[in-house]
Amino acid sequence: MEDLQVTCSTLHSEHSAGLTRNQQEYRKLFFGVNEIAVKVPSLFKLLIKEVLNPFYIFQLFSVILWSADEYYYYAVAIVIMSVISIATSLYTIKKVSSTIGQIEEILSTDLVPGDLMVIPSNGTIMPCDAVLVSGTCIVNESMLTGESVPVTKTNLPNPFHGDGGDEADCPYNTEEHKRHTLFCGTNVIQTRFYTGELVKAVVVRTGFSTAKGQLVRSILYPKPTDFKLYHDAYIFLFCLVGVAAIGFIYSIALSIIHEVPAKTIIIESLDIVTITVPPALPAAMTAGIVYAQRRLKNLRIFCISPQRINICGQINLVCFDKTGTLTEDGLDLWGVQRVDNGSFFLSEENAYKENLVKSQFVACMATCHSLTKIDGQLSGDPLDLKMFEATGWILEEFSVHDKKANFVCVCAPMQSTYEIGIVRQFPFSSTLQRMSVVARLLGEKCMDAYMKGAPEVVASLCKKETVPENFAEVLEGYTKQGFRVIALAHRRLESKLTWDHLEAKMDFLGLIIMQNKLKAETAGVLHDLHKARIRTVMVTGDNMLTAISVARDCGMIPPQDTVIIADALPPHNGQTAKITWRYADKPDVCHEDALKRKEQYHFAMNGKSFAVIAEHFPDMLHKLMLHGTVFARMAPDQKTQLIEILQDVDYYVGMCGDGANDCGALKRAHGGISLSELEASVASPFTSKTPNISCVPSLIREGRAALITSFCVFKFMALYSIIQYISVTLLYSVRIISSKLCSWEIRHVYLILCHVLNAAWKELVSCRPPSGLISAPLLLSVITQILICLGFQIFTFLLVKQQPWYTADDHNIQNFENTSIFYVSCFQYLIVAIVFSKGKPFRQPSYKNWPFVLSVASLYAFLLFIMFHPVETIDDFLDVRTQNKRNAPLHQFPYYLLLITDAISPSLSL
């Protein structure tokens, strides 16, 4: 479903004319009904869909086959485990589907693109995406962005009122006109009226094409997670299928030679397949992720994409936002630097409160914001709040019936009749890096325009004679000290000036210096990440030198390392694009030859240079990524692009931000962590309720533990199947195999589950776990174990036949071959479980996993007990032959010594 393709002027035309009934019906046919139809399937349908899963079909086939071959206990155990798994899965799916299905009740309306809607004065939840054409709205977009700070939305410039300019004929675009768009599902807290006119909006998108619809679609149909582990797991399973095929053919050939009945041939040959390809493997692989997710929740880290946990174990680079992430959310006003007659005054700290009440500088501080009162409390951007509170002024809002209803709000000093009304707001744009307001002193006819924003941007829009000559030096001095600097500007408006020309030829008023302190945990966490050889990068919308200063203060850039700023200029006047290099701490130009000599250096660049290099020097950009540490003045889409480029050069990228302007990057990173106050921000796979970056190493540690658990469980399950495969293949040669050989192996179900309980290791180490199963160390450990197990079983099988007390008994299940292989394989299962219960450096040692230790110890004790002290009832149940054990001393049974050796030798494969 496409957007309504219109220009801004067309939207205003439709606002004036409205749609006819025929037009509405036609557009409803074309765009569809405005609903996000999330159908909640019945429990029966969910059950059928779940049972028809290939995994459960294979399990059902295995259970039927085992029952036919008298493997009753093992079959029952698998059935119980499958029923529990299906019930849990159905409960989760039903709960999620019901929650998402509630959205339909909220959004289902008859609106179509082009309809005109009136926004209620007491607020509403938007049922569609609509563009404001009159009035202003205060909205909460936390549902989409994870950012709980209210956002101001202004009306689209009206070309019929002379305020559209070039924007009037440009196509409407959701991203470019975001500050004029009310997104579906967001909460409109309050509206503001102009001269009694209602707040109106034109519908532009409905149904699944809305922002809310796209979000629901991404939840219902998430992007597949591409990770080498899962790819290699399928290859490994295909290898097991190949091994099973060999055993299948071998079993059939052997059965034909021994003239076995057809029914027996079918059962035994198919049994080889179900033994070799473990039906419980997918459930066992998932168990590690489930427990890791539970541990993350205990750490106040919430996850909406569990498959990402394993991927987080591979993260080797983390991008951090600055403000609110590395530094405190709140800003303290350190001082101001006013300008008069093109020159700076001395820095003032709070002196303006007494003698500058009626100055344009303080008027700009008091009016150039998007604050609003909600339930009598000022609410809005923390920077705006600090700036306004520092003036000592008060903010007065009004109702539609108020005599001042032609103003957005009125600002005034306390106990003063000096009042300024805000006529029009142009909220802050991260792309433009500034905001403006139009205001009027009550009692005067002329209006004033006030602007605040990034110093470089504001200065470029001011008259040159009003900008001090030492502007760059003063700005650099503050930013090097780590201050956040905001510039202010003012202009007296002429009567016939249009809205789109007010941000030009302004008078530079001066600078506001804000202090942004590091969070207490920042330096320690970054130190731990560096010790673990995890690279850290800063991606911020703040000033370049401020970002570099903060990077040095928090240890992201060591004191002795050099910072080189890359300045890129686009093609201009026939000249090609070029890059110049300069040192951040000195005015010297850095030549490319110096880059080759310097070993410890970091690149820094701003958003404009990043865009030029990405367009004109793409090969150079990939090289810069290897040493780029500070990326300043980055727009939201540039943050996302940076993440993608880092991924292109084979980094596993984590992203940590506070939710504002980081949504795209958080979604695109391998492990995006939002520090939002919400329990689970939809903008990010992970959300931390601890508002600092200590969640980053915790997530990586749990990811590594979960990844290692997946490897260990996979290898154990694979060896478990191979050991059983070897045992069954050997015993088929004597044509008698005990059903208890497989049935008693239900004891290993608990052993498998105990594997996943190992908690993460307490600190990050410099090495990383492998990302795939197909690697030399992993394959070597598995192949070594297979060869050891194969060798001991064949040796046992042949050795028992050479004993003087051996008698062939092909017609009795309780024969010597069966008994010997049974004991050897049981010890091999336990040995493999111990060998593959890897602990340090990614998980806690196995001896701290008391369920695992208790399970192994009890199984070892039981095996030794029934082997050295036979109990007839137990032996009969397990089909173990015990006749000669009572008539011969133990030293006559060399395979007992073999079992002891078997318990020691596999440790060599560690």
Automatic annotation (TrEMBL):
GO biological process annotation, one example: intracellular calcium ion homeostasis
Alphabetized UniProt keyword annotations: ATP-binding, Magnesium, Membrane, Metal-binding, Nucleotide-binding, Translocase, Transmembrane, Transmembrane helix
Cation-transporting P-type ATPase N-terminal domain ranges (all copies): 2-71
Entry GO MF terms: ATP binding; ATP hydrolysis activity; ATPase-coupled monoatomic cation transmembrane transporter activity; metal ion binding; P-type ion transporter activity; polyamine transmembrane transporter activity
Keyword Transferase: no
Membrane topology classification: Multi-pass membrane protein
Compartments it resides in: Membrane
InterPro entries referenced in this protein's UniProt entry, alphabetically: ATPase_P-typ_cation-transptr_N, ATPase_P-typ_cyto_dom_N, ATPase_P-typ_P_site, ATPase_P-typ_TM_dom_sf, ATPase_P-typ_transduc_dom_A_sf, ATPase_P-type_domA, HAD-like_sf, HAD_sf
TM helices/strands, residue ranges: 72-93, 233-257, 272-292, 705-726, 777-800, 820-837, 849-868
One cellular component (GO) term of this entry: late endosome membrane
Family: Belongs to the cation transport ATPase (P-type) (TC 3.A.3) family. Type V subfamily.
Name recorded for this polypeptide: ATPase 13A3
Annotated organism of origin: Takifugu rubripes
